[in-house]
Amino acid sequence: MRVGWAVVAVLATAVSAVPWSSLPLRLKRDQQGANEADACRSLPDFHVFHDMFAALRDMQHVYFQRWIGTWPDGIDWTRAVMATHVAALLRTLSEELELAQPTEAGHATSTEHVISGYFADLIAYYFGQDAFAIRNQAYDDMLWVVLGWLESIQFVDRYTELLSSVSYPELAAAPETETWYGNAWVPAFAHRARVFWELAAKGWDTQLCGGGMVWNPRLMPYKNAITNQLFISASIGMYLHFPGDLNTSPFVAALHSDSPNHLRVSLYRDWRAHDPVFGTSAQEAHRWLASSNMTNAQGLYADGFHISGYNSGGNNTRCDERDEMVYTYNQGVILSGLLGLFRATGRERYLAEGHMLVRNVIRATGYDLARDRPVDDDHPRSSKPGMIQRLPAWRGLGRAGVLEDACDVAGACSQDAQTFKGIWMHHFAGFCAPPAAAGRWWVDPAAGLDDAAVEAIRARHAAACRGYLGWLRHNAAAALGTRDERGLFGMWWTAGLLNVTAADLGRLPAGALPAPDPAAVDYRNGGVPADSVWVRLPSGGDGSQADDDDAPSPRGRFDGDGQDQRVLAAGRRSTSTSRGSKRGAEFSGKADVGDPNLRGRGRTVETQGGGLALLRALWVVSGHEL
Ligand SMILES: *[C@@H]1O[C@H](CO)[C@@H](O)[C@H](O)[C@H]1NC(C)=O
Ligand SMILES: *[C@@H]1O[C@H](CO)[C@@H](O)[C@H](O)[C@H]1NC(C)=O
Ligand SMILES: *[C@@H]1O[C@H](CO)[C@@H](O)[C@H](O)[C@H]1NC(C)=O
Asked: What is the distance between the alpha carbons of residues 237 and 231, in angstroms, rounded to a whole number?
């Protein structure tokens, strides 16, 4: 069977009023798949492509407001993540769609129209982003901003490169002065990425725990996985993709280069591409994290470390009080950092570390990679294939082979947690993207690897990534099953495989949730406990004495935004099994609706971003099968 080029007709829906929504777009992958076996195998992917594009269209038309340049229901950090998803998807579209057909130039115009249309949203968001507020938030909040603009820069670079390789008369006429207009925005994106990287780098501290990023300067010292993974990925991303920044605004106070608390970062300098400070920061942060003992018995990152006795005048400086809470995103952000470290150094051990983490995650979803099927596949099936009637057991980071956060099954996820799985998928996609889709070059020539060595590593990496496709397809099938009649994705992907209603889940069976663990504090869903472990207190008293200016107040801004995170009442800790978070209680009135994904916060821009990122991961990684 020979399949020629296919036209992916992007269907208009009721919510979509854009002029390009019904234009035909042509996929390159068709032409590559002209040989019979490939064409057959890649056929289902066209559905993935269509669904992926629809996910972007719905995200921007349902949740983005162009007149204010933002997703109003997001919060500062989740909006930065949504912009990252849009930019990443634009890079994928630019790589996968035919940019020009010499004989049918109209197709190129359609593609350019679509890409520029969504790129305009990113420009709008550049101004819609509340950069001023984020400057005063936690270090992780700042680093999402860095990753977002680096992603946008990579998109512009890649798209420009692809455009210049097809016949574009304007570009050919004057290559020095005429280029795709998106390039005019790169200095702005680069400037914001640089400013926020520099602000965040102040969170590096060597007085406690021998190094590591502090999460939030207004709380007790807490060195967590996310802030450190973000610093690794953002720093190596700056090393690889930042084009330089000669704009010295804003003038912030200079850091003291002799302070042991700070990386040696000097201000009022010209920031150039490939500045070594980015690479050494990434390596140093990786070295610290790798030796921090932050992974648990399943090989998954626990959330982070406090320093025992810090609040009661002891002189302990060791990270020795681990919060055992496991979240999906803590297993994801480091993946793009590991790929970047490999590309910068040529050391394959960074890739090996990433694959080990990915396999640990997949195992913890209850999936057997060796047999390429879920371990809990023996449940009575309903008449509809793929539907499981009984709720499979929690396996550490999911069930039935599908990725989950602990809050998913109970519908108790906060706005933060609704963003987590999409983040995992985004960084996984970056890690496993075939080299052609990963950017202009694969390994830094300075690493000194010859072509044969690079090719051998590439082949091993590709084989490992191909091995995850069955699991990815299983997850995509689940997530697609959560879409409502408008096509919007739900939070709890597993529900798409199960024939369960919200009422069925009113009493969760034993084993449906993680075993209660007092050492696992689910502060992302339950709020930060106002106790002496988390909050700076005058003298180790209880939370009611917290009147320090630095301490968060229950009504004040805290951890990035005042809209979501609140300090719980004194002494109250919510464990991973707690379902009584403020967020959950606020929405509990909806819990009797049949669709399990209407419980809690329901469908949001964050859950839509999650579906988008999952489909993009499947599409990109399936490129290894071509
Ligand atoms: C502080 O550290 C010293 C030496 O490590 C130790 O002897 C001393 O008992 C510690 N003091 C406290 C209050 O922990
Ligand atoms: C690593 O952390 C775990 C959990 O806190 C602890 O039980 C173990 O002793 C630690 N190992 C080392 C070498 O510090
Ligand atoms: C789902 O379960 C209900 C009973 O709870 C049953 O009546 C229905 O047929 C099932 N649906 C499918 C598609 O199996």
From this structure: 10
The per-residue pLDDT for 167 is 56
Q: Within 6 Å (CB) of ligand 1, which residues are found?
A: 314-315
> How remote is the CA of residue 498 from the centroid of ligand 3, in Å?
10
Output the pLDDT for position 569: 28
Distance CA 38, CA 297 (A): 41
Provide the pairing of β-strand 304-306 with 567-570. unpaired
pLDDT of residue 337: 98
Sign of the dihedral through C-alpha 140, 142, 143, 148? positive
For 14, which DSSP code? T
| Separation of alpha carbons 139 and 386, rounded Å | 42
CA distance 240 to 444: 9
| E-strand stretches of 307-386 | 321-323, 367-368, 373-374
Rg (CA), the chain: 24
Q: Is the CB of 385 under 6 A from ligand 3?
A: no
Q: How far is CA 213 from CA 171, 199, 202, 305, 423, in A?
A: 44, 12, 8, 11, 20
pTM of the model: 0.85
Helix (H), strand (E) at residue 403: strand 402-403
Cβ atoms < 10 Å from Cβ of 5? 16
pLDDT at 96: 87
List all residues 6 or more positions away from 462 whose beta carbon is below 8 Å from its beta carbon. 434, 624
Between CA 8 and CA 115 the distance in angstroms is 15
Residue from 315, 316, 317, 318 whose mutation best tests the ligand 1 pocket (most atoms within 8 A of CB): 315
| Ligand 3 atom index nearest CA of 383 | 14
Question: Using the 8-state DSSP alphabet, how is residue 481 labeled?
Answer: T
How high is the pLDDT of residue 284? 98
CA of 292 to the centre of ligand 2 (A): 9
pLDDT score of 178: 65
State in Å: Cα 512 to ligand 3 middle. 20
- Amino acid letter for position 616: R
For position 260, what pLDDT does the model report?
46
What pLDDT is attached to residue 24? Answer: 62
**Which residue's alpha carbon is at the smallest distance from atom 13 of ligand 1?**
314
pLDDT value of residue 312: 84
Q: How far is the CA of 574 from the centre of ligand 2 (A)?
A: 23
Q: Is 458 exposed, middle or buried (0-12, 13-18, 19+ CB in 10 A)?
A: middle
Cis peptide before 175 (omega within 30 of 0): no
In the predicted model, residues of the chain with pLDDT beneath 70 are: 1-24, 29-45, 100-109, 167-178, 250-269, 377-389, 436-441, 537-593
The residue written with tokens 């972007």 in the block is: 56
Which atom of ligand 2 is closest in space to residue 321's alpha carbon? Answer: 5
